[in-house]
Design brief:
single chain; alpha/beta; Rossmann fold; 8 strands; 31% helix
Length: 177
């Protein structure tokens, strides 16, 4: 099952994703993959959910020689760090990927997530995709369930997503590694 957390830029999609991770862990589910954090200097840090380790993923300054978008320059080490975290996390009860975007549409970044979905190597995937890019990923993600983050629902949305997700995952399978 693929669950998409979508919404506009800056609405709180990553925060919603982080709260769903906390809920899943508190119920004994193993979680893997990556979540991103915006830093005060506008750079982006990526965190390996299983290991708790972090790496710089992107900067608004041209300090990295990896792929770039209109706003960010990406750290090749940070991308590889994320790819490895996603591969490790694919064996978890729930794989989280924050986020798929312009890089993945070009075949860069965390494009391996699409291959994992196509080959059905993951049981449950929660992926963050900004609303403007959603249509481009839909053909590759099968029949996902979509939750849109808004200012009005972002405080209650994690509970709604968790309720849906936990209804799909029998209690006895929780906690496998």
């Amino acid at each position: 099952m693929v669950i998409i957390i979508t919404g506009e830029i800056g609405i709180g999609k990553s925060t919603v994703c982080g709260r769903v991770i906390q809920m899943a862990r508190s119920h004994g589910y193993s979680c893997g993959g990556v979540i991103t954090h915006k830093e005060p200097d506008a750079s982006i840090t990526i965190e390996d959910i299983q290991m708790g380790q972090q790496e710089k993923l992107a900067s608004t300054d041209a300090i990295y020689q990896g792929p770039s978008t209109n706003k960010y320059f990406f750290n090749p080490i940070g991308i590889e760090f994320g790819v490895q975290a996603i591969m490790r996390g694919s064996r978890s009860d729930i794989l989280f990927v924050d986020e798929l975007g312009h890089l993945e549409l070009r075949g860069d970044g965390f494009f391996n997530v699409i291959d994992l979905v196509r080959t059905s190597k993951i049981q449950s995937l929660v992926v963050v995709i900004r609303k403007a890019l959603l249509e481009f990923f839909m053909p590759s993600l099968g029949s996902p369930v979509i939750f849109e983050t808004t200012y009005e629902n972002r405080n209650d949305l994690p509970e709604e997503i968790w309720s849906f997700l936990s209804s799909l995952r029998p209690k006895q399978s929780a906690g496998k590694s």
